[in-house]
């Protein structure tokens, strides 16, 4: 597996992995705001952020170039490039449970460390999302800060996590 720059054509596959509203909100925290989502919706969400140069969408591909997963890295603070944040982390549902999420995260952590020279990575995960265990497996730790998000299908607790890079 390797990470490469996100391509607009990736969005059709990524959006096809979102099968229901719960999955959409667990993945996007209702930032896109509608279900079902289309590839154009994802590209429209990303377009203004890509122009800002503080947003790096990446796609994970296997050895044959097939899309396996996706995430983005962004700088959450305007004047601090030492901290980055992961978001929209997703793996093809047919490829979950066999280490692909962990491998993609390890590649993204290495990218944040070696290319972006970050010293800390943060992310948020809803308490009803099993991805939390994958994040913990690569070293992310809950930092005790939680927030309640009001989703169209209920209120969810979001757990803030971080990984300090050495």
Quick rundown:
With 166 residues, this protein is of the alpha+beta class. The chain is built from 5 helices and 7 strands, in the order βαααβββαβαββ.
What would you note in describing this structure?
The protein is of the alpha+beta class and 166 residues long. The chain is 30% helix and 34% strand. It has five helices and seven strands, in the order E-H-H-H-E-E-E-H-E-H-E-E. The chain has a seven-stranded mixed β-sheet, with helices on both faces. A hairpin with a 5-residue loop joins strand 2 (55-61) and strand 3 (67-74). Helix 1 packs across helix 3. The model has no long low-confidence stretch (mean pLDDT 94).
Keywords:
alpha+beta; 7 strands; 166 residues; seven-stranded mixed beta sheet
Largest sheet, spatial ordering of strands: 1-2-3-4-5-7-6
Tell how many strands the DSSP assignment holds.
7
Distance between the termini: 24 Å
Describe the largest sheet.
7 strands, mixed
3D shape: globular
Protein topology:
Layout: E1 2-5, H1 10-16, H2 21-28, H3 39-51, E2 55-61, E3 67-74, E4 83-91, H4 100-114, E5 120-126, H5 131-137, E6 141-151, E7 154-164
Parallel strand pairs: 4-5
Antiparallel strand pairs: 1-2, 2-3, 3-4, 5-7, 6-7
Helix pairs in contact: 1-3
